[in-house]
Design goal:
The protein has helices at 2-7, 25-30, 69-87, 91-97, 143-159, 174-183, 195-200, 230-242, and strands at 38-40, 43-46, 115-116, 122-123, 132-138, 163-169, 189-192, 209-213, 219-224. With 243 residues, the protein is of the alpha/beta class. Helix 5 (143-159) links the parallel strand 5 (132-138) and strand 6.
Length: 243
């Protein structure tokens, strides 16, 4: 992690802290609805959207496209500058430069999904109608994603046709996607995400991201990352929707 790499150079003067999404008072204060977000003291210096989103080429965020070495070097340089300013007692300068809040881009309803699953069958809205729908965006290079997908398979076996689960892979080699799908639950609908689909969900800035929709298609909850209580949170929300 680049933040940890930068802060390690300030031994005894800067402490690196990570917080799970949903457990951060700072994220709540600034209205952060996704991850990653970076704070120096209590100043939000980089919101999720600034790192770009799935499929972005040119990039609209300051550090997009994030996989570019130049973008990562710019982020490191900016972070070093901001830390140095705060250590020099110039926190007000950093605060003036970074007055942004992380405006929510959360969707209110299940978008129209125009994809085919790994078997070539189209995913259509009428296949999801009247059921609680979970949509998981994941990647083969994301370690927490596999355990989340295994657990979603258990949910599908438990609730059967009362729920539909779409497992939509992003930025991953097709052979690895198919290998993962073959080793996990056949009850999930597996597909490779195209850019328009990701954008219709409000842009996917990180994985895993899990959307929960009620029987009418209205957004119930959105879960970012894989915090320790993710399963409990989702299952409580799901049980309430299935009553």
């Amino acid at each position: 992690m680049l933040v940890q790499e930068v802060t390690s150079k300030y031994t005894g003067r800067v402490t690196f802290v990570t917080e799970n999404f949903g457990a951060s008072k700072l994220a709540e204060k600034f209205g952060v609805k996704g991850y990653p977000a970076v704070f120096v003291d209590d100043v939000l210096v980089a919101a999720p959207r600034e790192f770009g989103y799935f499929g972005e080429v040119e990039g609209t965020g300051r550090y997009a496209p994030w996989r570019s070495a130049a973008s990562q070097e710019k982020f490191k340089s900016d972070l070093i500058r901001m830390i140095d300013l705060i250590l020099a007692g110039k926190k007000d300068v950093v605060a003036r430069e970074h007055t942004t809040t992380a405006a929510s881009q959360e969707i209110t309803a299940l978008p129209e999904v125009k994809l085919s699953d790994l078997s070539g069958r189209p995913l259509k809205a009428d296949q999801l109608s009247g059921r609680v729908v979970l949509v998981e965006f994941w990647a083969t290079w994301c370690p927490p994603c596999r355990s989340t997908l295994e657990w979603l398979g258990e949910l599908k076996r438990k609730h059967g046709d009362n729920i539909a689960i779409l497992a939509l892979a992003v930025e991953s080699p097709e052979d690895q996607i198919r290998s993962t799908a073959n080793s996990l639950s056949p009850g999930l609908r597996w597909a490779i995400t195209e850019v328009p689909t990701a954008q219709s969900f409000g842009d996917i800035t990180a994985v895993p991201t899990l959307f929960l929709f009620d029987r009418s298609g209205k957004t119930s909850r959105i879960f970012y990352g894989a915090p320790p209580d993710l399963h409990d949170q989702v299952e409580k929300s799901l049980d309430a929707l299935l009553k």
